[in-house]
Design a protein that fits this description.
The complex is a heterodimer of chains A (about 400) and B (about 350). Chain A contains 15 helices and ten strands. Chain A is α/β, with parallel strands linked by helices. Chain A has two domains: about 10-85, no CATH class; about 110-390, Rossmann fold, CATH 3.40.50. In chain A, the strands form two sheets. An eight-stranded mixed β-sheet of chain A has the order 5-6-4-7-3-8-9-10, with helices on both faces. A two-stranded antiparallel sheet of chain A has the order 1-2. In chain A, strand 5 and strand 6 form a beta hairpin. The model of chain A is unreliable at about 1-105 (pLDDT under 50). Chain B has an eight-stranded mixed β-sheet with strand order 3-4-2-5-1-6-7-8, sandwiched between helices. The N and C termini of chain B lie close together (about 10 Å). Chain B has helices at about 15-30, 45-50, 70-85, 85-95, 100-105, 110-120, 140-155, 155-160, 175-190, 190-205, 205-225, 235-245, 275-305, 320-330, and strands at about 5-10, 35, 55-60, 65-70, 130, 225-230, 255-260, 310. Chain B has 14 helices and eight strands. In chain B, helix 13 links the parallel strand 7 (about 255-260) and strand 8. Chain B is elongated, with a radius of gyration of 24 Å. Chain B is an alpha/beta fold and about 350 residues long. Classes of the chains: A alpha/beta (about 400), B alpha/beta (about 350). Chains A and B meet through helix 1, helix 6, helix 8, helix 10 and helix 11 of A and helix 5, helix 8, helix 9, helix 10 and helix 12 of B.
């Protein structure tokens, strides 16, 4: 690249570019910016460099973040670089989230983060992985040493945290943020070796596989155990789990007490009892329940919260709503005067969806809302955007 | 012969609604149709406004449309009672591990769905059976379940414990397994592993029957029409790629790819330069429309299939008639286009 390409290795601390384009809608400033500037999207950034797209307006702010998030800014032009140099160190403030419905003081970000383990769940398609990743990013930004764990399918977390393939060995895409996937076989092996302190591992491993294939509670217990053991390790201040969807999470959370009841007094039972106690201690572990403001995701979220509370399995740290539309601040009379066409249709869809969403949000009573990010293409960008919005208060 | 439509795709893309919509449209066009769901959220029940059970029931006020929700435990009990002698079947059903296998074994629920689909399709009571697949595994779990189930009842794990022959109730454990059993007893505080072995031995009695049956289920998949549902989001797009790569092993190519929550492509850069509220709003939605256009072009380029488009709606239809309208408005979602007429 000609002369002054901004390479990742150039900066000890990395800064993510943000430009303040003329502000039309404060809440949606950032997504609109992405759309204009294409932060995080190589193709579009390249176009910026060639001067084909919008020139960023004055007033560029920077936010300290991860080198890997610089991919999209890898080829910034010299005028921009100069601005970078001038503005280095300016940390942009997080945009205000929408109001929590449960009133102030129910959940603060500090309060949510101040435990060892956060398990993020929600109905399929509500953005669980993105929210788990964003929470991990945010906690790391706040100076905590974080381990993000993919409990089942690792692809979501891998995409959102830009780690590439994830396995049983942690990778560290950013200082202070490590990521790992639970592989059931490796977790079972660790359980036998380190927790049960079983001698003659080879033979026992075979036997336990037979057991785990037949008694699913064993496998679930091993997975929950793995989370809890990581949570007690001094290497991490916080473990964030990208958990299975609400339909499956209860059987994981119930597994330790199920096993405790199934086997007689033994090392296995002692371990299961320890897990049950750790899970139910709200200073150790809690669940973050996510929903999009639609009928079924909200219903599932409320059912899950009710079951968790009733069975006292694990505390609920926060209820979050994802993909929420902002108020359009447009009355129907104005819309009716608008001639037919895309301007009218887009506004009508927005109003209708937003109206339905408001009803569902009322039922959910979320502590925090996250916006629908219009037009953002890469999972990594979604997670880092959402991380800005964690501002429970 | 009854046509089978398998609706697959990532969680949250609208599979359940589309399954019900496809079924309602088929019924409205004069055919008898059954829609089956395995969704634990009972979401199809809500969409159809009825309470569902394992036995198909008529959707009120909508002729020729029946619906059922699969109860995995019930399906498994039926399977075991069909394929084992009464004494063994009773012992299996009463076993404490039985429910765990049916409900919680990763393939237990998926296989129950496959089994119910086959049973109803074989009964010839309907012209078509539409299956809404469970969210985990995006539908691949259902297709792969017959093979996995043969692995379970075939006792691959058990053989290591008991040797190759089907043993009697009091097993002669193999020489390699015996020390492990003793050790396991110490760790587990009792003969849990032996209980499991006995359960698996009973289950193996059903092997011949279930094995034969599961191959018949597999043959049903080969002739089924699969409909793949996706959105522009990364998760569903990833599942779509996975589906296209893994599907040939189990079934024919998808007959249709449905792109749900679609926005008009012309919204991209349709905005004026007025800079007012409506322009700003159109610009946001236009950015999303553009992302969708790229995702759709990617689908078309990679898989050679033009996605069918279902528009973004403020709320999914909540009546059978509304559901039928939805599928009716989408081209090529009828039985004939799906190759089942």
């Amino acid at each position: 690249m000609a002369g002054r390409a901004w390479r990742v290795g150039r900066l000890a601390y990395s800064y993510r570019l943000e430009a303040s384009l003329p502000q039309r809608d404060p809440q949606y400033q950032r997504p609109v910016l992405d759309h204009h500037l294409g932060v995080g999207d190589e193709r579009v950034v390249h176009e910026v460099q060639l001067g084909r797209r919008h020139e960023p307006s004055p007033g560029i702010a920077f936010e300290r973040w991860d080198p890997s998030f610089l991919h999209g800014c890898g080829t910034l032009t010299e005028p921009l670089l100069k601005r970078c140099d001038i503005e280095l160190g300016h940390v942009s403030s997080a945009p205000a989230g929408t109001q929590g419905r449960r009133g102030g003081g129910v959940a603060t970000l500090e309060g949510v983060l101040d435990r060892r383990l956060l398990i993020v769940t929600g109905k399929g398609g509500t953005g669980r992985s993105a929210l788990a990743a964003s929470l991990a990013i945010r906690a790391a930004r706040e100076g905590r040493r974080v381990l993000a764990v993919a409990m089942a399918d690792p692809h979501g977390l891998a995409g959102h945290l830009r780690t590439g393939g994830l396995g049983a060995l942690p990778v560290e895409p950013h200082p202070g943020l490590s990521v790992v996937a639970i592989e059931p076989a490796a977790a079972l092996d660790e359980y036998l070796r380190l927790r049960l302190k079983v001698p003659r591992l080879g033979v026992m491993t075979r036997a336990f596989r037979v057991l785990a294939d037949t008694v699913p509670g064993i496998r679930d217990t091993v997975v929950i155990g793995k989370l809890l053991w990581e949570a007690t390790r001094p290497e991490w201040d916080l473990v964030v789990a990208d958990a299975p969807p609400t339909g499956q999470i209860m059987s994981f959370l119930r597994a330790p007490s199920t096993i405790e009841g199934l086997v007689p007094a033994s090392r296995v039972q002692d371990q299961a009892a320890w897990m049950r106690r750790m899970l139910s201690d709200s200073e150790v572990a809690a669940v973050v329940v996510a929903a999009t403001p639609e009928d079924l995701p909200v219903t599932e979220a409320l059912e899950t919260i009710a079951a968790l509370t009733e069975e006292r399995l694990v505390a609920v740290a926060a209820v979050v709503a994802n993909r929420v539309l902002p108020d359009l601040l447009l009355d129907r009379a104005r819309l009716d005067r608008e001639p037919p066409g895309p301007r009218h249709d887009a506004a009508l869809l927005h109003l209708e969806v937003a109206t339905r969403q408001r009803d569902r949000l009322g039922e959910l009573g979320a502590d925090q809302s996250f916006p629908l990010l219009f037009g953002i293409r890469t999972p990594g960008e979604v997670a880092s955007r959402l991380a800005d919005y964690w501002s429970l208060s | 012969m009854t046509g089978v439509v398998l609706v697959v795709g990532s969680g949250g893309v609208g599979k359940t609604t589309l399954s019900a919509a496809i079924a309602a449209d088929i019924a409205r066009n004069g055919r008898r149709v059954l829609v089956l769901t395995v969704d634990p959220a009972r979401s199809l029940a809500r969409a159809l406004g009825i309470h569902l059970g394992n036995t198909p029931s008529a959707v009120p006020g909508f002729p020729r449309l029946d619906a059922a929700m699969i109860d995995a435990s019930e399906s498994w009990e039926g399977l075991v009672r069909t394929h084992a002698d009464p004494a063994t079947a009773q012992r299996l059903v009463a076993n404490r591990f039985f429910r765990a296998v049916a409900d919680r074994f990763p393939s237990g629920q998926a296989y129950a769905a496959a089994e119910e689909m086959t049973r109803h399709a074989d009964s010839d009571q309907w012209d078509a059976v539409v299956v809404d697949t469970p969210p985990s595994g995006g539908g691949i779990d259902v297709l792969a379940s017959p093979r996995r189930i043969r692995g379970l009842v075939g006792g691959r794990a058990l053989r290591w414990l008991t040797g190759p022959a089907i043993p009697g109730r009091r097993a002669l454990y193999t020489v390699t397994a015996r020390p492990a059993l003793r050790l396991a007893d110490t760790v587990l505080g009792g003969p849990l592993l032996e209980d499991v072995a006995e359960f698996l031995m009973d289950l193996r009695v059903t092997y011949d029957g279930i094995s034969k049956r599961s191959r018949h289920v597999e043959s049903r998949f080969k002739t089924a029409a699969t409909v793949l549902v996706t959105t522009a989001d990364p998760g569903p797009m990833r599942e779509t790629a996975r589906f296209f790569s893994e599907l040939p092993e189990w079934a024919s190519r998808p007959r249709a790819v449905v792109f749900n929550r679609a926005l008009p492509a012309e919204w991209w850069r349709a905005g004026g330069n007025g800079g007012d509220l409506l322009d700003a709003n159109l610009e946001r939605w236009g950015a999303e429309a553009h992302r969708q256009t790229e995702a759709r072009a990617e689908l078309a380029a990679r898989y050679g299939m033009i996605p069918l488009v279902v528009p973004w709606m403020a709320e999914a239809p909540t009546t059978p008639a509304g559901l039928a309208d939805l599928a009716g408005a989408t081209e090529r979602l009828d039985l004939k286009s799906l190759g089942l007429d």
